[in-house]
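Q: I'm teaching a short session on how sequence maps to structure, and I want students to see two examples side by side rather than one. Could you give me a first protein with its sequence written out and its structure tokens following it? Keep the formatting plain so it prints cleanly on a handout.
A: Of course. Example one:
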Amino acid sequence: MSRDLQWASVTPKRHNHVWIDLPAGIAAVLPPGCVGCGLSKEEYEARQSRGRRNVKRGKHYEHGWAERLGMRQTGGLNKEDDALNELFVGQAKSMASTRFPGWMANELDKLRARWADRIPILGILEAAGQGKKGRRLIVVDEQDWIALHVGDKAEKVIGWIK
């Protein structure tokens, strides 16, 4: 018996929905839907269209992002990269405003207000446990990135660095 309970929390395998149309008398008692999972056709259609809209919106944002950064859009389903050029490869992630890490933008804005003549960057440092190497990221505002790496300003900066 404990062997059967072990699998009780496992999510059931995905399946192809089998829709049945019930006669009017029975449909009043039992709502029509998928035989396997009980999902109604209306719920299924809503989920499908919402998924397609999100993918289309994400591709639109990704295309604009790659274009602004002077990169070629390469992204497709099941690809690790969304855009690249001679020097950089990138992955774009779009998300709702409520999920966007606004605190990062706020920290960059504070630095920009204090040091108007410098480009603000934000270091994200992982506090790894003992014996583990922490990861480190640098966050830069997109406008500053474009100023450094795209177009005329980039040519001046790159020339200055060399």
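Q: Perfect. Now a second example for contrast.
A: Example two:
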Amino acid sequence: MSARRKFWGWGFEGQGPTAAEAETLRRMTGARFGGLPEPLAVPQAAEFDLAAPRLRPPDSLAGLCSAESADRLAHAMGQSYADIARAFLRRVPHYPDLVAWPETADDVARLLDWADEGGAAVVPFGGGTSVCGGVEPDVGPDYPAVVSLDLSRMNRVREIEPRDRCALIEAGARGPEFEAALKPAGLTLRHFPQSFELATLGGMIVTRSGGHFAMLHTHIDEFVQSVEMVTPRGRITTRRLPGSGAGPQPERLVCGSEGILGIVTAAWMRLQSVPVYRASATVRFDGFEPGAEAVRQLARSGLNPANCRLLDPGEALMNGVGDGRSALLVLGFESADHAQDARLARALEICAEGDGESRGGTGSPRGKGGERGKGGAGRDAAADAWRQAFLRMPFYREVLVPHGVIVDTFETACTWSAFPDFHRRVTAGIREAIRRTTGRDGEITCRFSHVYPDGPAPYYTLYAASTPERMLEHWREIKLAANELVVGGGGTVTHHHGVGRDHRPSGYDRERPDVYAEMLTAAKRAADPGSLLNPGVLIGRRGGVLAGDPE
């Protein structure tokens, strides 16, 4: 890969907000918070003084490893708010001693053997998009050194089986890489997390990422047919089957394991035929509550729209697609086999029963077709505008963070019966936490990222005005409050962002049953008896401070 990933922001060097986008963000945010303090300058790699590596690879592995400061810095953090804030503050407390780029599963095995001999911790690294401390080399004092294991050179689609509609894809392949390889066969994984451009297949699998489909196939798990994994004890290859009832499914243990059991090197993935027929519309509701009820009815209808994102009025306004009074539902259907007009029509009937007003509905084979919906001719630009804002949002933090603005997200899931009270408590609790912490009012918005017949997955975005000097301190208090609100309220600490180091002590450790924690510990001990792999994630020796804690 020729472009280097930014260590202080989203994407690759040369990517970022346009000057116009940055100016608009500063103007709007400054107006909301009564002005912004002077920003911190963009950090440069030369400003960071890294300690000398504490280990050297043997000659047989030296060609796979780097001790260059720029490489170590690029693998010191993920993409959480705390990561970006620490980069701008020039406070990056944990660096890998070396970065290793295996090119084959044999390389992975040799690197793990070498690390095992020296007692070094190994932190797997995919696209570096973790927003919960999952790739940070913060392994505690029990390890003489730490190696960041970057899978990006293992990026091939090794085999495509059209009859089974599956492909064997190496774990380091980024979303655009494997999609480009699948396209000539008319196939697609059709799993598009917000981090799609950067995220690797292996990272998607071990964090149980949430993707394109708002219902039914919401997580990467549904597409994993079999996996190849290298552990410190040996290699695991699961059998490629459409399904099996032979005991607990081994692939399910790998999904969500966050690199603590082994290094996923490749996986057979179930694919989709490229959609030919699409139908879409946006629907406006007089408030979030009636929109949520309509979505609940859609979730139990069996229609299973591919897209069913409900934005509350604040979320719609922040993304430039609303007036701050109406909630917006972005609704879409797709198929490679048959027209989706009838499905969209029935979905719009359900929404109309909840007083939703649809606009710009279209049903189209290959983008051509008649209009649908009652909002007039032509496609409603709101859905397209929201998609663009959604994809650009990660870039916007590098504009706001230098001014001390806290802009962060957290996502969860709960049952429909719990949701009304849960949502009220979370939004009120976050507003109170922002006010208590910063001394000023903030904002919190919500959207549904994924939806199930038994409950929604609310995705919250918060905005708070701090200062560059205190933003990490304030972020930490608000983050802990968010974890407490969602877990204490009966939700999950994460629906698809992963556990990492930020969600474990104040969320995941409380959410999982104690006996299950012992079972998971036993599984790790069997696969990784030296506890080399990603210590402190899911389980481990480290007590589990948040990434933003001062040292």
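Q: What should students look for in example two?
A: Point them to this: Residues 366-379, 542-551 have pLDDT under 50 and may be disordered. Also worth mentioning: The chain is about 30% helix and 20% strand.
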